[in-house]
Amino acid sequence: MAVIKYVARRLVLMVGIIFVISVGAFYLIHLLPGDPATVILGGGDTPQARAALYKQLGLNRGIVIQYFVWLNHVLHGNLGTSFITNESVVSTIKNAFPIDVEMIILSQILAFAFAIPLAMRSAQKPNGRLDKTASAGSFTLLSIPPFIIIVFLVLIVAVKLKIPNTGPASYVSIGQDWVVNLESMVLPAVTLAIGSFVLYYRILRSDLISTLQEEFITLARSKGISRRRIMWRHAFRPSSVALVGTAGVNIGGLIAGGFVVQFLLQIPGLGFTLIDAINLSDYLLVQGIVLVISVSVVLINFLFDFLITIIDPRIARD
Amino acid sequence: MSDNAPLLSVKNLATTFETARGEVPAVGGVTFDLLADETIGIVGESGSGKTVLARSIMGLQPRTNVRVEGSVQLDGTEIVGASEAELRKIWAVDVAMIFQDPMTSLNPLIRIGKQIDETLRLRLGLNKSDAKKRAIELLDLVGIPSANERYMAYPAQLSGGMRQRVVIAIALACSPKLLLADEPTTGLDVTIQAQILNLLDQLKSDLHMSMVLVTHDLGVVATRTDRIIVMYAGRIVETGTTKEVFAQHRMPYTEALLASTPKVSDASHTRLNAIPGRPPDLLKLAKGCSFAPRCQYATERCHNERPELESSGSPSHLFACWNPLPLPTNRTASSAGSEA
User: Fold this and answer.
1) A307 shares a domain with A200
2) Can you tell me the ipTM of this complex?
């Protein structure tokens, strides 16, 4: 079973990468100038707090021991308690992370829903009118940075069209009111979707064009089956390996890079919280968020690598 | 097909590719008929237009930058100029193609059984389980052992010969009246070649199909065709019954082609008889006979005037040449003198 072996190898590799990440995240605090306790406590540096922290992190012991004490806490779901806000880092992350997840899922649904059919249309007639228009349009979109896009979207959707709950700082959690939540997610999801859409469209288009030149497509045509079936059944899957690989990297990037959108629209996701934490010198929270983001990126890449082997099992074989 | 009308009637078929460098006349006016149950061989070097001709007969060109003129009537249906939607109705059911390279002509990500029963379900309307049953029968018919298990195999799990059998099974799925076999054995080992050709021969007579067998290998067509078309630079240069072409060919190109086939009787390390020169650049075809630049018998006239296909007495035997080779009887008489 080549696939199982491949996945097992990947899994071992992933555990190794996560170990390295954890060392990095742990060492972050020690990299900053000064005593870690001073760094962590920030403004709340009282003798009592300092004593509590020393006990919590084992700061008077060697650094290797400190790492394993910390790792033990992390594995038990304990990232410490912020001495700035007095909130547990885990619960802060638990509130913020689902917002990123929702934002990314919505944006990816939008991106794929537009990119796949459009790439198929383009590939049917390369250099045809639709292909040229779509390629030029996507290139234009690619060259506009998200922070410009979002300003325009706010101007048009929230200010001109006055669609409720789409402007900055209108975020409400799903539990509170899902309609308002979805409305507030429109602009961030669309903004993130645009970049992804352009990427996916371009990659899928060029892969479809080259797949459609393959002899097995000519054979499929000679069976007298419809163009639509040739596209979906015969051409799409062999053309989607690069697409899925790119999506994995791209989504990882969105987790780490969604903060521009979150900052501009005041959406309290991980990126937004991270900026807040940096401004407040809340280094335990920074450490926790960095760890969560990095591990998520690794997990997503692993998941998409696995997806690729399902799409094309030959990849696992070599 | 009760009357004597041919199953396939090709008239002045010309296929031109529009490329950035100019127009390439890959097939330049080809005319021939094919009767029901008949097998015709199309031979010629690489680039002589055989494959394009086969695809044009079926209407299976690339969708853009190609122009097809003339007429192809298949059992009364005109192919040239028909829309792809119309062609889809006859593809697989009336005419099917066996592709050249079994390594690239099967979809690598779909189980072979699924690739066969796709045609059965979508074109013949069979339900899932009937299609599967029939697909396994077809795998069995083309000589794939343990067809039941192989139904689930991916192409990469089969050898080249087995894959070509799958390609044949796909072509046979709807029992077409006409089978276009485009170099069906080129990518295969010699022993497998014979197996595949014998299989085609047998299936052809069992299923009452007509066949167009395209190949560059004269050995392939010698015993398996009723008639032969020799192509050069997109045109027919000689055609006749298989016997006529082998024993009484008149066109120097045919002779050169036959002479270039190595014989078992040759001594070891005999130098192969290659045809001097290269096939012509279709972008810059001369106005005379396209073979003239490589022909040892070429005269002034050959370079300036194009010969048309003409009969040599036998109505089935046509060739396009200003200086045809003498008939074999005369040949031996003139060269040796004593043997006749």
Assistant:
1) yes
2) 0.88
